[in-house]
Amino acid sequence: MPYIIDGHNLIPRIPGLSLQDIDDEMQLIEMLQDYCRLSRKKVEVYFDNAPPGQLKAQKFGHVTAFFVRAGTTADQAIQQKLRRLGNESRNWSVVSSDREVQSAARAARATVIPTQTFADQLLRTVEQTHTSTDISEEPTMSSEEMEDWLNLFGESDEN
Questions:
Q1: C-alpha distances in angstroms, 26 versus 8, 42, 115, 140?
Q2: Which tens digits make up the pLDDT trace of 32-47?
Q3: What number does CATH give the domain 3-152?
Protein backbone atom coordinates (compact mmCIF):
# COMPACT_ATOMS: atom_id res chain seq x y z
CA MET A 1 0.00 0.00 0.00
CA PRO A 2 1.63 3.29 -1.08
CA TYR A 3 1.80 6.34 1.16
CA ILE A 4 0.82 9.98 0.78
CA ILE A 5 2.81 11.94 3.37
CA ASP A 6 2.42 15.47 4.68
CA GLY A 7 6.17 16.18 4.77
CA HIS A 8 6.30 19.25 7.00
CA ASN A 9 3.98 17.46 9.39
CA LEU A 10 6.44 14.54 9.62
CA ILE A 11 9.78 16.38 9.87
CA PRO A 12 9.35 17.59 13.49
CA ARG A 13 8.56 14.00 14.57
CA ILE A 14 11.94 12.68 13.38
CA PRO A 15 14.79 13.11 15.89
CA GLY A 16 17.61 15.10 14.33
CA LEU A 17 15.38 16.81 11.76
CA SER A 18 14.02 20.32 12.14
CA LEU A 19 11.86 22.57 10.01
CA GLN A 20 14.53 25.22 10.67
CA ASP A 21 17.14 23.23 8.72
CA ILE A 22 17.80 24.49 5.20
CA ASP A 23 17.85 20.94 3.82
CA ASP A 24 15.12 19.43 6.02
CA GLU A 25 13.13 18.23 3.02
CA MET A 26 16.13 16.44 1.46
CA GLN A 27 17.03 14.83 4.78
CA LEU A 28 13.50 13.45 5.04
CA ILE A 29 13.52 12.33 1.40
CA GLU A 30 16.77 10.40 2.00
CA MET A 31 15.23 8.63 5.00
CA LEU A 32 12.12 7.85 2.98
CA GLN A 33 14.28 6.43 0.19
CA ASP A 34 15.84 4.01 2.68
CA TYR A 35 12.41 3.16 4.04
CA CYS A 36 11.01 2.48 0.56
CA ARG A 37 13.97 0.33 -0.39
CA LEU A 38 13.65 -1.74 2.76
CA SER A 39 9.87 -2.00 2.93
CA ARG A 40 9.30 -2.11 -0.83
CA LYS A 41 6.75 0.69 -0.59
CA LYS A 42 6.07 3.72 -2.74
CA VAL A 43 5.81 7.20 -1.19
CA GLU A 44 4.50 10.54 -2.35
CA VAL A 45 5.55 13.33 0.01
CA TYR A 46 4.14 16.85 -0.14
CA PHE A 47 5.91 20.01 1.08
CA ASP A 48 4.56 23.58 1.46
CA ASN A 49 6.28 26.79 0.40
CA ALA A 50 8.34 25.63 -2.56
CA PRO A 51 11.02 28.15 -3.48
CA PRO A 52 10.59 29.92 -6.82
CA GLY A 53 12.13 28.00 -9.69
CA GLN A 54 11.97 24.64 -7.93
CA LEU A 55 10.43 21.80 -9.91
CA LYS A 56 6.90 21.01 -8.84
CA ALA A 57 7.56 17.26 -8.60
CA GLN A 58 10.83 15.36 -8.35
CA LYS A 59 11.39 11.63 -8.40
CA PHE A 60 13.89 10.06 -5.97
CA GLY A 61 13.64 6.32 -6.61
CA HIS A 62 10.38 5.15 -5.04
CA VAL A 63 9.85 8.57 -3.47
CA THR A 64 8.11 11.32 -5.39
CA ALA A 65 8.36 14.72 -3.74
CA PHE A 66 5.81 17.41 -4.55
CA PHE A 67 6.86 20.97 -3.76
CA VAL A 68 3.69 23.04 -3.48
CA ARG A 69 4.04 26.68 -4.47
CA ALA A 70 2.67 29.64 -2.52
CA GLY A 71 -1.04 30.18 -3.00
CA THR A 72 -1.93 26.62 -2.09
CA THR A 73 -0.83 24.23 0.65
CA ALA A 74 0.43 20.67 0.88
CA ASP A 75 -2.82 19.85 2.71
CA GLN A 76 -4.85 21.07 -0.28
CA ALA A 77 -2.58 19.21 -2.71
CA ILE A 78 -3.06 15.99 -0.71
CA GLN A 79 -6.83 16.47 -0.76
CA GLN A 80 -6.72 17.04 -4.53
CA LYS A 81 -4.66 13.87 -4.96
CA LEU A 82 -7.26 11.89 -3.01
CA ARG A 83 -10.06 13.29 -5.20
CA ARG A 84 -8.11 12.38 -8.37
CA LEU A 85 -7.57 8.86 -7.07
CA GLY A 86 -11.30 8.34 -6.58
CA ASN A 87 -12.05 4.75 -5.54
CA GLU A 88 -8.35 3.92 -5.89
CA SER A 89 -7.67 6.01 -2.76
CA ARG A 90 -8.73 3.08 -0.56
CA ASN A 91 -5.45 1.42 -1.63
CA TRP A 92 -3.38 4.30 -0.20
CA SER A 93 -2.33 5.32 3.31
CA VAL A 94 -2.27 8.99 4.25
CA VAL A 95 0.29 10.08 6.86
CA SER A 96 -0.75 13.28 8.59
CA SER A 97 -1.86 14.56 11.96
CA ASP A 98 -3.75 17.44 10.38
CA ARG A 99 -7.47 16.94 11.10
CA GLU A 100 -8.64 18.25 7.73
CA VAL A 101 -6.28 15.93 5.85
CA GLN A 102 -7.31 12.98 8.02
CA SER A 103 -10.97 13.78 7.46
CA ALA A 104 -10.48 13.98 3.68
CA ALA A 105 -8.57 10.68 3.75
CA ARG A 106 -11.32 8.96 5.72
CA ALA A 107 -13.98 10.35 3.36
CA ALA A 108 -11.97 8.92 0.45
CA ARG A 109 -11.69 5.61 2.34
CA ALA A 110 -7.89 5.81 2.49
CA THR A 111 -6.09 4.45 5.54
CA VAL A 112 -5.11 7.21 7.98
CA ILE A 113 -1.82 6.91 9.84
CA PRO A 114 -0.98 9.53 12.49
CA THR A 115 2.36 11.19 11.84
CA GLN A 116 4.01 9.98 15.06
CA THR A 117 2.97 6.38 14.35
CA PHE A 118 4.57 6.52 10.91
CA ALA A 119 7.67 8.30 12.26
CA ASP A 120 8.18 5.47 14.76
CA GLN A 121 7.73 2.87 11.99
CA LEU A 122 10.14 4.75 9.71
CA LEU A 123 12.82 4.99 12.40
CA ARG A 124 12.48 1.33 13.38
CA THR A 125 12.82 0.20 9.78
CA VAL A 126 15.78 2.42 8.96
CA GLU A 127 17.62 1.85 12.26
CA GLN A 128 17.08 -1.91 12.11
CA THR A 129 18.90 -2.08 8.82
CA HIS A 130 21.73 0.21 9.90
CA THR A 131 22.18 -1.92 13.01
CA SER A 132 22.18 -5.18 11.09
CA THR A 133 24.70 -3.90 8.55
CA ASP A 134 27.08 -2.43 11.11
CA ILE A 135 30.00 -4.66 12.00
CA SER A 136 29.80 -4.70 15.75
CA GLU A 137 32.28 -7.48 16.35
CA GLU A 138 35.59 -8.28 14.75
CA PRO A 139 35.52 -11.44 12.69
CA THR A 140 37.01 -14.34 14.57
CA MET A 141 39.34 -17.07 13.35
CA SER A 142 40.24 -20.29 14.96
CA SER A 143 43.85 -20.63 16.09
CA GLU A 144 44.41 -23.10 13.24
CA GLU A 145 43.12 -20.60 10.66
CA MET A 146 45.30 -17.90 12.17
CA GLU A 147 48.36 -20.17 12.02
CA ASP A 148 47.61 -21.01 8.37
CA TRP A 149 47.44 -17.32 7.49
CA LEU A 150 50.61 -16.56 9.36
CA ASN A 151 52.40 -19.44 7.60
CA LEU A 152 51.08 -18.30 4.24
CA PHE A 153 52.36 -14.75 4.70
CA GLY A 154 55.59 -15.68 6.49
CA GLU A 155 54.76 -14.31 9.92
CA SER A 156 54.73 -17.60 11.76
CA ASP A 157 56.57 -18.17 15.06
CA GLU A 158 58.37 -20.99 13.28
CA ASN A 159 60.16 -18.58 10.89
A1: 12, 17, 18, 39
A2: 999 999 999 999 999 9
A3: 3.40.50
